[in-house]
Design a protein that fits this description.
binds manganese (II) ion; alpha/beta; 404 residues; 18 strands; 11 helices; nine-stranded parallel beta sheet; 26% helix; four-stranded antiparallel beta sheet
């Protein structure tokens, strides 16, 4: 329908399926038409928002110019603006499939001068696998890329008039995940040729410290598990506990001074003076557990122990008085859903079990930072990264909850 062929001032309403893409002030699309996106000017958004409730054109533009009429015609042809009497579009909304920038879920870019709020989470990529032992498959440095790649299917969306992220409704819990998050993506820590592992990890720590100094919290995407040491060293101004979700304790001996790798990283972390204690959840397979050797300030829980634990036992896993850092080695999940991790282990947690466990242990806690490590690309539709992304949603959602 064209305005010029209709009554002089029809009642109009903005298409309720119009959504904006986070990180873009100009891009929008209709939820009922995935794949169709629109580049709109800020003025056009402003104009459209005046038709949130149905209004006549003459109420909004008493004397429209020819150019304004042309734009309105275009908006109507593209169904962004609808005649109010035409009825709203039929059919259920469909999930969007829209190319977004290569930031997690299309998050906003993070700059050092970005101001943040308590709901600010900054994603930082640690494309590092120099800490992987030679007998295992390298590739954890691809983790940030592949997680961001699968996250393109989950663009964070804003309503027409609101700057608050809607979030993702979860079919099980009926919770809306990530609602109200201010998600930023700081990109990856730069690696220049010839950088030593030690210098690289120090550089990562400096990036994390800069995020911390702006009162935001970081979600680190590994990388092999040794990146967690840099993250925890960067937070040395505070005392806290570390909760690790991992098939392995990563408590191997330190063979020679300063030698940091993904299998001894927790021994380094455990020795830091600001780390009050370490709890590992999800261990299994053949390995010596440090608590069996009497290592102080250290507790482990196997998959079987976690499955059979009562609610009360689970409530005692973490100390109620402590802040926690959460590190998730994706191999805590069963190998069938993380085929692309560095050291896959069978008989692991199902994704729903891990999500429930994270929520049980960490809901209401002050989480000082978090990471997801040991994710690699895989030929099974990047199932590993998809699983990791679900874990990322859980961690981000837990971090933005106000501590209870
Ligand atoms: Mn690990």
């Amino acid at each position: 329908m064209s305005l010029r062929s209709s009554s002089p001032s029809p009642r109009l309403i903005v298409n309720p399926g119009l959504v904006r893409v986070l990180g873009s002030s100009t891009e929008a699309y209709l939820r009922a038409k995935p794949g169709t996106s629109f580049e709109l000017t800020a003025d056009t958004f402003e104009f459209l928002s005046q038709f949130r409730q149905e209004r006549t054109l003459s109420e909004v533009l008493p004397e429209p110019t020819a150019e304004q009429l042309r734009v309105i015609d275009e908006l109507m042809t593209s169904e962004l603006l609808l005649p109010a009497d035409a009825g709203l579009p039929k059919g259920p909304p469909r999930p969007p499939r829209l190319p977004v920038p290569r930031r997690l879920c299309g998050a906003l870019p993070w700059h050092d001068e970005t101001s943040s709020t308590p709901n600010a989470i900054v994603v930082l990529g640690a494309k590092y696998d120099a800490g992987t032992l030679e007998r295992y498959k390298k590739g954890a440095s691809t983790g940030p890329d592949v997680i961001r790649e699968v996250s393109r299917e989950y663009p964070l969306l804003l309503g027409l008039d609101s700057n608050q992220v809607w979030g993702f409704p979860d079919a099980n819990s009926r919770r809306r995940y990530l609602k109200g998050v201010e998600l930023f993506d700081a990109g990856d820590v730069h690696t220049s040729p010839g950088t030593t592992p030690k210098a690289w990890l120090a550089g990562l720590g400096a990036e994390l410290l800069a995020i911390r100094e702006r009162d935001a919290r970081a979600l680190l995407l590994g990388g092999d598990h040794s990146v967690t040491l840099a993250a925890i060293e960067a937070l040395s101004a505070t005392r806290f506990g570390v909760v690790q979700f991992d098939a392995h304790t990563d408590f191997a001996p330190i063979e020679f001074e300063g030698h940091i790798h993904h299998a001894n990283v927790m021994r380094h972390i455990h020795s830091l003076p600001h780390v009050e204690h370490v709890v590992v959840c999800g261990v299994r397979g053949f390995q010596q557990l440090p608590d069996d050797l009497g290592v102080p300030r250290y507790t482990s829980y196997s998959v079987e122990q976690l499955r059979t634990a009562s609610r009360e036992q689970l409530s005692n896993v973490l100390r109620p008085d402590l802040t926690y850092y959460a590190t998730v080695d994706v191999d805590v999940l069963d190998a069938s859903i993380v085929p692309g991790t560095t050291v896959p282990e069978t008989d692991g947690l199902r994704l729903a079990e891990l999500r429930a466990l994270l929520r049980t242990l960490l809901a209401g806690k002050n989480i000082i930072g978090a990471d997801i490590v040991e994710v690699q690309g895989d030929p099974m539709a990047n199932l590993t990264a998809r699983s990791a992304l679900q874990v990322a949603f859980e961690l981000i959602d837990l971090m933005i909850q106000p501590p209870g």
